[in-house]
């Protein structure tokens, strides 16, 4: 059966994440519903990985298999005509039969956006940022340096997913200014991420920026492998999956 690879962008605000759940709207569910209507049979969509409830994506990757008779449908146009405005198919191409959206992944990059203006949050940006005031960015950068490298990130994994191991390699965390002087973007790239790992890392960086955690304490939290000893999880709305690398 032909295999189709999708690149998908979405605003995650009103969805319970990527993966189909017992109840509530999901990105996977919305796409599968439209594919099933087009093909006349259930079509399963496989994503590169879960994104949490409320998390956004600029370039999620997914694949599905279709009957030979449906291989030449213009999938991008067909799906975009049916999907809601907060989901868009950026690309749809035929992929090799051994391509797998999840198991072929080499690394992923996420961006987390902080809003620092002390008096307001721009309404157009509110669904995509975490408003935090009075941050010491130098302290945040120092803490970020401690996180880069190959470590056991068990202290930054929330419960809920069965996995084989918690060791990951995290590239140096990059901080850049966004379109507004009030916006700062932190980018995280790794060979894999644990459940809510980026949000937990961002929570630690903000705690360091607020002065509640010394950068020198980061190493002890990593080595302790205890989620209870690490700061709280950052909100989902500031997080965006930017790129999946194969």
TrEMBL record:
Domain of life of the organism encoding this protein: Bacteria
Binding residue positions for substrate: 110
A Pfam family: PseudoU_synth_1
The entry's keywords: Isomerase, tRNA processing
Reaction(s) catalysed by this chain's protein: uridine(38/39/40) in tRNA = pseudouridine(38/39/40) in tRNA
Keyword Cell wall biogenesis/degradation: no
Keyword ATP-binding: no
GO BP terms: tRNA pseudouridine synthesis
Cross-referenced CDD domains: PseudoU_synth_EcTruA (cd02570)
NCBIfam families listed in its UniProt record: hisT_truA
HAMAP family with a match to the protein in the record: TruA
Family designation: Belongs to the tRNA pseudouridine synthase TruA family.
Annotated protein name in UniProt: tRNA pseudouridine synthase A
């Amino acid at each position: 059966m032909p295999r189709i690879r999708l690149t998908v962008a979405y605003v995650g605000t009103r969805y319970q994440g990527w993966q189909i759940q017992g109840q509530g709207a999901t990105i996977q569910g919305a796409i599968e519903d439209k594919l099933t209507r087009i093909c006349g049979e259930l079509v399963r969509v496989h994503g590169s990985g879960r994104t949490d409830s409320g998390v956004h994506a600029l370039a999620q990757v997914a694949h599905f298999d279709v009957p030979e008779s449906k291989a030449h449908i213009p999938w991008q146009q067909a799906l975009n005509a049916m999907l809601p405005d907060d989901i868009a198919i950026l690309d749809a191409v035929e992929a090799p039969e051994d391509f797998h959206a999840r198991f072929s992944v080499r690394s992923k990059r996420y961006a987390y956006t902080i809003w620092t203006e002390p008096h307001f949050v721009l309404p157009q940006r509110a669904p995509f940022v975490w408003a935090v005031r009075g941050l010491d960015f130098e302290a945040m950068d120092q803490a970020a340096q401690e996180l880069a490298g190959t470590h056991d990130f068990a202290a930054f994994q929330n419960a809920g997913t069965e996995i084989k191991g918690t060791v990951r390699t995290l590239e140096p965390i990059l901080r850049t200014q966004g379109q507004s002087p009030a916006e700062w973007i932190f980018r995280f790239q790794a060979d894999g991420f644990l459940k809510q790992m980026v949000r937990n890392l961002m929570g630690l960086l903000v705690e360091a920026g607020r002065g509640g955690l010394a950068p020198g304490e980061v190493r002890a939290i990593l080595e302790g492998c205890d989620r209870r000893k690490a700061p709280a999880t950052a909100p989902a709305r500031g997080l965006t999956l930017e790129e999946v690398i194969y």
